[in-house]
Amino acid sequence: MRKFVSPDVYSYTPIIDGLCKCRRVEEALGLFEEMEREGVKPGVITYNAIMDGFCKEMEREGVKPGVITYNAIMDGFCKKGMVDKAFELKVKMGRDGLKGSIVTYGILINGLVKLDRFGDVGVVLEEMKGKGIVANEFVYNSLIDGHCRMGRFEEALRLRDEMLSKGLRPNSVTCNVIARGYCKAGEMSQAEILLQEMLTERIEVNAGLFSLVIVWLVKEEKRLDSAVRLFKEMLFRNLRPQDSILTMMVEELCKNGKHQDAIDVWDRMLEKGFGVSTITSNTLIHGLCESGNMKKAVGLLKMMLEKGVTLDKITYNTLILGSCKEKQIERGLLLREEMVKKGIKPDICTYNTLMRGLCDLGRMEEAAALWNELKKEDLKPDLYTFSTIIDGYCKALEERGFETRPLHF
Prior knowledge:
- The chain has helices at residues 9-21, 25-37, 44-60, 67-79, 83-95, 102-114, 118-130, 137-149, 153-165, 172-184, 188-200, 207-221, 224-236, 243-255, 259-271, 278-290, 294-306, 313-325, 329-341, 348-360, 364-376, 383-399.
- By secondary structure, the protein is mostly helical.
């Protein structure tokens, strides 16, 4: 259809309706699928046409739609937010002599909860009670989720206790819903308590909940040991922390002098086969260099190379800076050579750092050689470059006895 015009729901719906009335349901369904592929959202009339077409086709074939069929269509309506249409279908079920099952009521309750129609939920629950239909885990989870989203935690917990009193064990869905509700409301202490209970009871915890609690422990509570323990629990369950959370943990551990813990976190990720981002690795190297742990920083670089971790300019520039701060200029120069061999081109930051290191040691000839080299590499000296070289020459002249070579500005 798009070949000739730009169709919308008003273009598709009459054709679908016409095809259904002409008993060409398969063609109507094909057009319905085309709507979704083209990003045209079906309307209520569109769904009605398809539904009526299928029901009439089934009747013509002598096949009566059963509860499962009705449930499937009702579920589709509820997921589209068309709960009233789902209730109309429930009425039709009754006229056809079919009784709704716990699945039927679960679908309707879930649809109502998503629209925050808790008054109607109460009516449905009363109807269930009158028909002797007992709420299952799905119904309770829907209700708990709805109350948590609205910040009604007391009611959510009451429903959880009610589940227990009826012999229904709260599952992973129930607990994760309540815990995430706490997180959303800023009740992080309660979320942590519930998370610990879930771990003790061996209830599955999703990655999102782990992440929320870890961020809170690191950023707000500064309880790094607890955060690392939860991180290990995630890995034990084969859950991968997001790169941003991993980087944050490594950064905070380094800031608090827990460099070995930061290295262990980084190493455990690789052991699990999850891989580590370059940003996380650079953060760890930066933390080690800042604290003067150059031996560990260089050792980490070797591990990165052995394990195929991606390196970049920041990786090498950080290590070169750390080496120069420790007066280990030879190591800095070797790192620059290795950088070039890896196909990573040194930038003005690389040259500035090495020139500063050489000037601080009074090695002006080598500093001048780097100056001339950077110009050959078409790199533009900045204010720091000029101040570094001028300062170096001034110090050399003061100390006397240093031969200097002319610079070409």
